[in-house]
Amino acid sequence: MILDIWMDYIPENTESTLKSITGVLESGLFMNYKVEVLGLTS
After folding, report:
1. How many CB atoms lie within 10 A of CB 41?
2. What HEC string does the chain produce?
3. What is the phi-psi region of residue 21: left when phi exceeds 0, alpha when psi lies from -120 to 50, beta otherwise?
4. What was the pLDDT predicted at 25?
5. How far apart are CA 29 and CA 34, in angstroms?
6. What is the Cα–Cα distance from 40 to 42, expressed in whole angstroms?
7. pLDDT band at 29 (very low <50, low <70, confident <90, very high)
8. Which among 35, 34, 5 is positioned nearest to 18, based on CA atoms?
9. What's the Cα-to-Cα distance from 6 to each of 17, 22, 34, 40, 42, rounded to whole Å?
10. Is residue 15 classed exposed, middle or buried when 0-12, 13-18 and 19+ CB atoms within 10 A define those classes?
11. pLDDT single digits (tens) 3-21
12. With contact defined as beta carbons under 8 Å apart, do 29 and 15 qualify?
């Protein structure tokens, strides 16, 4: 099952909670990553 959702706030433990569920291989959450946009000019 794939869910595509937008959330304004994701609690810190969400990724570990999802991964602790039997059968969940990956969460797809990008938490605590530095955001960097490449290739854009102003």
Report:
1. 3
2. CCCCCCCCCCCCCHHHHHHCCCCCCCCCCCCCCCCCCCCCCC
3. beta
4. 86
5. 13
6. 7
7. confident
8. 5
9. 18, 24, 18, 24, 27
10. middle
11. 777 788 888 888 889 889 9
12. yes
